[in-house]
Amino acid sequence: MPPRLRVVVINHGLPGPTRDLKGQFSPLAETLALDSGSTLSEDEQAVFDRLLPNVYYSGLVNAAVEQCADLADQDVLFLTCSDVRFDAPDQVLRRAREAFTGNTVGVWAPASSGTNFPSIRNAHSGGLREVAFLDGFCLAARLAHWRALAPVDVSVNRLGWGLDIHLAYQARRAGQRVTVDDRVQMHHTLGSGYSNEEAWRQLRRWVKTLDRPARLAHRLLFAERMQHRPWTWLLQKTPPRFWQRLFAWVTP
Question: Per the structure, how many domains does the chain have?
């Protein structure tokens, strides 16, 4: 039986697209919309289930996890930014539920356009592919992994670079897979809309606050994501159990 799945749309400045996404997903799954500091009319405010000050991406992740407090650890939070578009939302959620049935997948996302990372683009494999980690603008993960990540200290890393790596680390630590699904497609405009230099500074500060296994995971998984071939080969050739044992071995 598939786990429960909740969709959370996070937004800053795009109430119209948020309304569209909520309308598409609401007939298919419980769907919430959260806003971070947008200037909204009364009608636009009605789209959202929770209005926050400008808490940036990490604050929205924290709030999304809070909104799933009633779900079990094996249930799924499907998080998407409001500027993501889906070819077939019904197929996206159907494939997500299929992927999370059983206990082998920990993090999942549709194939994507508008990403800097080739591994997430559609490879036309016709199914699930193992990847290092997924892009934070849209991904689904079990609540156990979200809860191991959140709450993120927004005073250290409010822009949220590295949170997607940490979800992948938590999944692999649990012996689960991190997968992109080439059977379904999403679209995202290339670019972040903020200073990458500042995001890098925040990421480096935040990683220093993590324990040793997590710091190792960030180095290994980001190296693979940047297409350093030895790590690409290692990821493709080793089962999730390898990573689970590796991170357990380096844990003090």
Answer: 1
